[in-house]
What we know:
38% helix; 305 residues; six-stranded parallel sheet; TIM Barrel; alpha/beta; 9 strands; 12 helices
Amino acid sequence: MEFGKLELHQAAATDFSLPAEPVFNTTTLQQNLHPQPLKVHVGCVGWGTKDWVGEVYPEGTKESKFWEAYARQFNLMELNATFYQIYPAETLTKWKERAAANPDFLFCPKFPKQISHAQTLYGTQDLTKVFYENIRAFGEKSGPLFLQLSDYFGPERFAELEKYLQQLPKDMPVFVELRHERWFSDQQAKEKVFALFRSLNIGAVITDVAGRRDVAHMHLTVPSAFIRFVGSHELPELTYKRADVWIERIKNWQQQGLQSVYLFVHLQQNLLEPKMVDYFIERLNQELGLKVRRPKFIAKPLELF
């Protein structure tokens, strides 16, 4: 992920503290009239690399089998593949079947870039209809849909965004990632767009990335959190410290009535990514009294010298 990416010396000097809790969230979380145990899903972007074989996936796992191996280890995937094309329902049904071994597994499909970037929502009703029709093939394994707006889609396009979101089907949760800087620097624009999301029961993606601290805005427009935890070329110890800060924030939200968390770990270091997923789950289980299943890493035999 290039968005907000910094080099090591820049990331090390970044203030990774999270913004103060917005008063806005109190109203959102208090709308949860039927408190229930917090549901937590944590995963990666994609299904891994060859570096995971022997560490995360069994020795000898072929690349064609990475998908099944991923679904056995993790319970969430940010599905970037749907960003690049609209897949037929038959293909998505096959992907669902390959994840059948894990009853808790969820896909979070990204809206196609033809909708979000190439046409910037304009004239995309037919494309959106096809996308939704096909995505329904995931059935019970469909998590929230992820609409990522381009860096150039700013507050001057508010009316277009409102019109597009209003016509989306209401039976599948959607989270929107805002990237244009003025959504956050213009207080009126920020208040207006988050109020729109809440009125339509649409979530706001929170992205924690070194080079754009404004997108870690902390606003919950629905009683669920969709968090993208993104690392640059930073030291692992810094990444763990950042994770600990998030554990405390999620714990605070849980106490106020948060219903669910969708947490995506996206790091430059391939083997650190699954380990950070495990760390998040371990700490969330400890601090929030949960029992989310952790991935199981492959033990290495002792080497004798």
